[in-house]
Amino acid sequence: MASPLAKKIVIVGGGTAGWMSAAAFARLLPSECKVTLVESQQIGTVGVGEATIPHIRYFNQLLGIPERDFMRETQATYKLAIEFTGWGNASSRYMHPFSAFGADLGGVDFHHHFLTARAIGSNAALDDFSLAAQLARGNRFAPPPDEPGLGYGYAYHLDATAYASFLRRYAEARRVVRREGKVERVTTAPNDGRIAALVLESGEVIEGDLFIDCSGFRSLLLGKTLGVSFESWRQWLPCDRAVAQASEPLTPLPSYTRSRATASGWQWRIPLQHRTGNGQVYSSECISDDEACAQLQRALNSAPLSDPNFIQFEAGYRTHSWEKNCVAIGLSSGFLEPLESTSIYLIQMAIVKLVEFFPDADEHISREAFNRWMGMEYRRVRDFLVLHYHLNRRQDSDFWRYCADMNIPASLQEKIELFRESAVVQHYDQGLFAQPSWLAVYFGQGLVPLGWDSRAASVSADKVARTLHGLASQLQTMAERAPAHAEVL
Ligand code: FAD
Q1: Is 224 among the annotated ligand-binding positions?
Q2: Is 205 labeled as ligand-binding?
Q3: Ligand 1 center to 146 CA (angstroms)
Q4: Model pTM?
Q5: Which residues pair with 85 in a beta bridge?
Q6: Does the complex come out with an ipTM higher than 0.90?
Q7: Which position among 8, 34, 79, 324 bears the catalytic label?
Q8: Residue range 177-197, pLDDT digits in tens
Q9: Of 241, 270, 280, 372, which residue is least crowded by CB atoms under 10 Å?
Q10: Which residue intervals of the chain bear CATH 3.50.50.60?
């Protein structure tokens, strides 16, 4: 990187987004960049966000944080998959593991052979062919084996407040300056409207070249000051409320997140070492806050440890995350509900892309590239989340009937139709979720394709049946030999 244009970087907000940004800038930007972070303890953070996807491991590696230290400091557990119960119909249950299913046979993707086997009577489930899913089912964990076709990714469940504190210590040890206080006013330059300074309640003025808005749902700089509009996706993701409550840790300790559909939304269960995170996500048009909270409390698997925390939100994003000299990272740039644990991933992507595109000559080019990238990330994640809602056959409430009948984004419609016709998973350009993730939801929620790759017929039905049976039993045996998750921790 040549000499950067922005030498004074000011971050507003000390939640997960703020401290992940500060830590990464301290490590990755040239030392001439001075980083200041302003946060207000009086305002506090959103206080949720505990499930991740495997990319967070690369973020920690980028920062040079050993896994052992990270896990101890954040009371983290391992996460191999998400279990979805009640999403296809009221009794359906499937795992979305961080892994592929089986390996190709005769050059044809595994799931086409899986379909052949089903057509001749096999009742195996797709997740019988993922070691990660089998381990998760048994509340077990083992590091991924180094054998072709058997590997998988893993992520963590973590205490988000502890993670932010951990990253704060990391960043402050690398010269990030923290200022406590509430930003009361933001001043802009009269000639071009760029942000000039923050004025704190105390009267302190903090000037900067580049401002990072990590102020959460308030979107203090990007939304309120610069007026970048919010595009709502509520018509596709109708949940707009959540209530969260912690409870005692679980025994045995699951190595997966659970997502259980309810009549007007869904409930999460996130196992940590020292507690369990629980929450109910719901549409305020279908259920009251009190009813949602009562429903969540009835479903708790262990004694409560905190009072319920109610959160309001709207699914959608700011049409561009970088405007003038301000980049929004985290909830200030948008929010897609936590169904596939993608928010921390989106924070990570924004940080990595900002560092990659960090302007040293022409800010305009970097800004355009960044905005195009982030817009694409948001829309790809959106489509995958909408798939879960749309592909339901529950018919037991207005909420689920609406989701099944709603008009979905054309990009998603096209993808579903192609799969229904031919079992082909269309490859999006560089979206987060790859073929195995789409297969998990398609099959898990009961979308059976009408046709599949005719080349699968070149492998005899007998060989397919033997191969599938052999693989499922091999994975089951491996999973049964693996240690319990709690033991590994
Ligand atoms: P916040 O945590 O809200 O932080 C905002 C910061 O800005 C605070 O420090 C606040 O004090 C500061 N601030 C605001 N205004 C001012 C001001 N005027 N002056 C000074 N400081 C100010 N993500 C996942 O990846 N996995 C999950 O499982 C997950 N679950 C979620 C469940 C729910 C119900 C919700 C709503 C979100 C969930 N998320 C999840 C998203 C996740 O919580 C956020 O992405 C993450 O916490 C980052 O939040 P943030 O830092 O952007 O905002």
Answers
A1: no
A2: no
A3: 37
A4: 0.97
A5: 93, 260
A6: yes
A7: 79
A8: 999 999 999 999 999 999 999
A9: 372
A10: 8-50+159-234+315-381
